[in-house]
Amino acid sequence: MSVALQMTAFGLALLSTLFLLLATCTDCWMVNADDSLEVSHKCRGLWRECVTNMQDGVRTCDQYDSILADHPVKIVVTRTLLITADLLAVLALATLVLGLDCIMLLKEDPCVKLKMCYGAGVILGAGSILGLIGSVWYAVDVYMERAMLMTHNIFLGVHYDFGWSCWLGMAGSTGCFIASVLLTCCLY
């Protein structure tokens, strides 16, 4: 039972960490959601803004200014939280691999291996909470920006909704949290 639980948590943690890394690196956190006939598809991300021409499929991306330049708070906070979540998730995966029962390292001391799995669960939980806060922060800020424009009767011709990167960040964080719960609460 313990080996099956460890392997389930490892598989979920690995997949969720990949989702988090992909969400951090991709550039479609906000996508235009106008119902009119669009000739282009716009995505805004943490690192750049891309426009895809719908007629010929040509994609052009504009990098944001230097990392040290002034950026909106939602971009800076989301970058920071997701990069920290990525680092913690990778560290937790490395610790979890060493603590798995099927790995021969430290086989003579099962108590240490169990503590490594528990520690990996705690680290994974911290990373998942940071990733979830960053993803939800960005999503709420997009929603509030849109709601503020609507309450002031300002229509710019296009409005933005959550992109697939935002959903991927939320899914990765949630998966890491579930894996953390499996490792910390169910393993003992």
Automatic annotation (TrEMBL):
InterPro entries: Claudin, Claudin16, Claudin_CS, PMP22/EMP/MP20/Claudin. Its main location: other. It holds the Pfam family PMP22_Claudin. PANTHER family: CLAUDIN. It comes from Elachura formosa (spotted wren-babbler). It is a multi-pass membrane protein. Belongs to the claudin family. This is Claudin. It is found in: Cell junction, Tight junction; Cell membrane. The gene is Cldn16_1. The chain crosses the membrane at residues 118-140, 162-187. Claudins function as major constituents of the tight junction complexes that regulate the permeability of epithelia. GO terms for cellular component: bicellular tight junction; plasma membrane. GO terms for molecular function: structural molecule activity. The keyword Metal-binding does not apply. Residues 1-28 form the signal peptide. The keyword Transmembrane applies. Keywords: Cell junction, Cell membrane, Membrane, Signal, Tight junction, Transmembrane, Transmembrane helix.
